[in-house]
Design goal:
The complex is a heterodimer. By secondary structure, chain A is mostly helical. Chain A contains 2 helices and no strands. Helix content of chain A is about 50%, strand content about 0%. The relative contact order of chain A is 0.09. By secondary structure, chain B is an alpha/beta fold. In chain B, helix 1 crosses helix 6 and helix 17 runs antiparallel to helix 18. Chain B starts with about 40 loop residues before the first strand and ends in a 28-residue tail after the last helix. Classes of the chains: A mainly alpha, B alpha/beta.
């Protein structure tokens, strides 16, 4: 392997360790070299200025992210996901109704 | 005349097989003139589960004190060591057990046996609903007992003590069951109930810690009995067995005087009426309730105290409840809903339709009263469509979160018409202490077993969302001295949390019911993974909601003023937990 590539990999690993330490996630995050990388989350500003725009460093989060490939899930897992979605929908609708009621009442 | 009973069913029959004749009118005089100086009689310990103040035990304690006997109340514990030590030290002449919950009978039996094993030789007796209906079974299963006090116990207990004190034979006393020389249970004629409840001494509350409660809350009893004939309930059979009126009322003035005394001397501001049915029935009951409200309004309690009552949905009349709220401080109602399915309501002989429930709930909303309700999602004759209707009913009834949806199934308790019916049909299973049955479709047994596990914490424990949200709703609607009323925003947020809790539960229930109905028994038994997944889903949602609810509850309580270091009081004292291991209240 090109020595430059090796140095870049070293630097990437150092940065990752530093981020994990700073976030206090060292005990929670396990790196699995053979696993797919987690999808980046642009909403959370996943790339940031850390690597100067050249090396993309995802912000590590505890646990595995939800896989996008739904064919990996069995029927029970899919059903469970639907249950959670239904509960979330219930929660959001209730909160929306609460906020609308408050807006109708007026206030500061 | 003593009578033998058939141990199989505990019914009292004369030796010749004739039915029991009712006993004589009690000759116990509870008037002030009959009062004996304290400390000159016998000593007794009354042991009971201290739930909702256990007014039954407190009325008994006052009755025997009226006759000069010394009585202490002891909280029932599964571990008998503390009771044994106290009995050994004090050597009371009589130990009386108050058995409220049928399922606790085996546990009470162990404590009785432990007392005897520890060498106690005094009289041991037991009373309560189950013991009254099944005295022969109780005597058979608890050899350490000397007697069972059947039905209303004040006069009978006083008479036992009088006879023990004077060395007379107590066995012929009306209202008692006992064992003959051959060990066979004998049930004497029942004692007629006390006709005028106002003659009874007020319940002894000396050891209740009202002053230490953040919301000093007392249970009250304004009446005894209920004339309705619901098939799952033993209240009417209990009072019917004694003869006399099916519902007796105390005078409103006497009730208000007891409340005022608790308010002024003990600082009680919340009164939970434990009457079987506060508004049963008709104009007479409404007039009585309104008289009580006027009595309260005429004292310094006006606008300073809150009260809770229980009733049926077809007794909810807006004009009456408005006056009870404005004059008497009514803020909370316990509604006997039982079912939202028309067929199940027929099976339960409830004699009303689901529309009554909706109308009643609309009245509560208009009057801004909190309420909670009893609900049996399943009963012995339930089919899939009945359960489905009930789930739909719950969503419509309380989907807005006005109160939390709780649910269980009907149990055939002792003395109920339902137990007799299931017995006649050959469907009664389980033990005398824990009666049981199977549903008509065995897949509903699988659904019920799943439901019991999936909603165990939510529905049946003090840590569960049902209890926490009911207590929260109760407090959000309180209007008592020394507490800021909840703001509309706080009430709305409480409803939001409750609404999510209810809808998630209904979704989970429906998902399980659909799954169970669309599979064969064999498939369901072979692969439980779907139901397991639903349980996990419900648990995740409940945990999140519990965290949110407790955070809001703590913040609300800090804000409204009561000292958080004090004992809970309030709604905590009005609810019965199903398991002794679960009585630890959430840390609010």
């Amino acid at each position: 392997m090109d020595p430059l590539e090796i140095r870049m990999l070293h630097r990437r690993i150092d940065l990752l360790e530093q981020i994990v330490e700073q976030a206090g996630l060292a005990d929670q995050v396990r790196f699995r070299p053979n696993a797919d990388p987690a999808p980046d989350d642009p909403v959370r500003g996943g790339f940031g200025p850390i690597a100067g725009g050249r090396i993309r460093v995802p912000i590590p989060r505890p646990g595995d992210p939800a896989p996008f490939d739904l064919s990996r899930l069995n029927k029970v897992q899919l059903q469970a996901a639907l249950h959670d979605l239904a509960a979330e929908r219930t929660r959001l609708e209730s909160m929306e109704s609460l906020i609308k009621q408050q807006m109708e009442l007026g206030g500061p | 005349m003593t009578l033998t009973v058939t141990p199989a069913d505990g019914r009292a029959v004369a030796a010749g097989g004739q039915p029991v004749a009712l006993g004589r009118t009690p000759d116990i005089d509870f008037s002030p003139a009959a009062r004996r100086p304290p400390g000159r009689g016998l000593r007794l310990l009354l042991v009971g589960f201290q739930d909702q103040d256990n007014l039954g035990v407190r009325y008994l304690a006052s009755a025997v004190r009226h006759y000069g006997h010394t009585s202490d109340i002891v909280t029932y514990e599964d571990d008998p060591s503390a009771l044994c030590a106290r009995v050994a030290a004090e050597q009371p002449h009589l130990v009386g057990f108050s058995l409220i919950f049928q399922y606790m009978a085996p546990s009470f039996g162990k404590v009785v046996a432990a007392l005897r094993a520890a060498g106690y030789r005094g009289h041991i007796t037991m009373g309560g609903h189950f013991a009254s209906f099944e005295p022969a079974e109780v005597l058979d299963r608890m050899p350490g007992l000397d007697s069972v006090v059947c039905f209303e116990g004040e006069a009978t207990l006083v008479e036992i003590l009088e006879h023990l004190e004077t060395g007379r034979d107590w066995r012929p006393l009306a209202g008692l069951a006992w064992r003959d020389a051959d060990g066979r249970p004998v049930v004497n004629p029942h004692r007629e109930p006390i006709a005028d409840l106002d003659v009874l001494p007020l319940p002894d509350r000396a050891d209740v810690d009202y002053e230490q409660q953040s919301l000093p809350t007392a249970s009250m009893l304004g009446s005894r009995g209920c004339p309705w004939n619901c098939s799952f309930c033993s209240i009417r059979p209990f009072y019917e067995a004694q003869g006399g009126k099916l519902r007796r009322l105390r005078s409103p003035a006497a009730i208000a005087a007891e409340m005022a005394d608790l308010y002024r001397r003990r600082g009680v501001v919340a009164f939970l009426f434990q009457d079987d049915d506060f508004l049963a029935t008709g104009r007479r009951a409404k007039s009585w309730a309104l008289d009580l409200a006027r009595e309260i309004a005429a004292t310094d309690m006006a606008g300073q105290v809150s009260m809770k009552m229980s009733c049926r949905s077809d007794e909810v009349d807006e004009a009456t409840l408005r006056q009870l709220r404005d004059l008497g401080g009514l803020t909370h109602v316990y509604l006997g809903v039982e079912s939202g399915d028309e067929e199940s309501l027929l099976h339960l002989n409830k004699q009303l339709k689901p529309q009554s429930h909706f109308k009643a709930a609309d009245v509560f909303r208009r009057l801004d009263l909190s309420f909670d309700f009893g609900f049996m999602l399943m009963e012995p004759y339930s089919r899939f469509h009945n359960v489905r209707n009930n789930i739909e009913f719950l969503e419509q009834f309380v989907g807005d979160g006005w109160t939390v949806a709780t649910f269980c199934r009907t149990l055939p308790y002792a003395g109920t018409p339902l137990k007799t019916q299931l017995q006649a049909e050959g469907r009664l299973l389980g033990t005398d202490f824990e009666p049981d049955y199977n549903f008509l479709d065995p897949r509903l047994d699988i659904f019920y077993d799943w439901m019991l596990g999936a909603f165990r914490v939510r529905n049946y424990t003090d840590d569960g969302l049902c209890h926490i949200l009911r207590a929260l709703q109760f407090e959000l609607h309180l209007n008592v001295a020394g507490r800021r009323p909840a703001t509309p925003g706080e009430k709305a947020y409480g409803r939001h949390l409750t609404s999510v809790c209810n809808k998630v539960a209904c979704y989970t229930l429906r998902g399980a019911l659909d799954h169970v109905e669309s599979h064969t028994l064999g498939e369901l038994q072979a692969d439980p993974s779907f139901l397991v997944g639903l349980t996990e889903h419900e648990a995740r949602q409940e945990q999140r909601l519990t965290d949110e609810t407790l955070a809001f509850y703590r913040s609300f309580r800090r804000d409204v003023g009561p000292d958080p270091a004090r004992l809970p009081g309030g709604f905590q004292r009005s609810w019965t937990v199903a398991e002794l291991t679960e009585i630890a209240a959430p840390d609010l």
